[in-house]
Specification:
- The structure is a single chain.
- The N and C termini lie far apart (32 Å).
- The radius of gyration is 13 Å and the shape is globular.
- It has 117 residues and is α/β, with parallel strands linked by helices.
- The model has no long low-confidence stretch (mean pLDDT 95).
- Strand 1 and strand 2 form a beta hairpin.
- It contains 5 helices and 5 strands.
- It has one domain: Transcription Regulator spoIIAA (2-Layer Sandwich).
């Protein structure tokens, strides 16, 4: 994907996708499809680690909300991990993303939230 790398791992049955780079019009659709694929293949839901995201525009915000809707319809859990000091955290707060998806400061916290859901 142009401008973005997604590193994947698992914590037990939970898939973890760590995003690195920029999310914008050039890669948002492809990013959404990859995250959706990872989530649907996981028995325990998906944690999206946003600590490595350097830039996100309105297309990225739309992409995240569409992903939430798709995963809710499929009954697949989703949480996000992003450090409190991250500039992206403010964007997610302004758009109320953190009210729609549990958004926690660490991957471990996000995994625990999925397991407790």
């Amino acid at each position: 994907m142009k401008g973005l790398r997604i590193d994947t791992s698992a914590v037990g049955p939970v898939a973890v996708a760590a995003l690195h780079g920029e999310i914008d019009l050039l890669n948002a659709d492809e990013t959404e499809q990859e995250l959706l694929r990872l989530a649907m293949a996981s028995a325990g839901g998906l944690v999206v680690n946003l600590d490595g995201v350097l830039y996100a525009d309105s297309t990225a915000v739309r992409m995240f909300f569409t992903l939430v809707q798709d995963l809710r319809q499929a009954r697949v859990g989703l949480t996000a991990a992003i450090a409190d000091a991250s500039p992206l955290r403010r964007l997610l707060k302004v758009t109320n993303f953190d009210e729609v998806v549990p958004t926690l400061p660490t991957v471990d916290d996000a995994v625990a939230a999925l397991r407790d859901a």
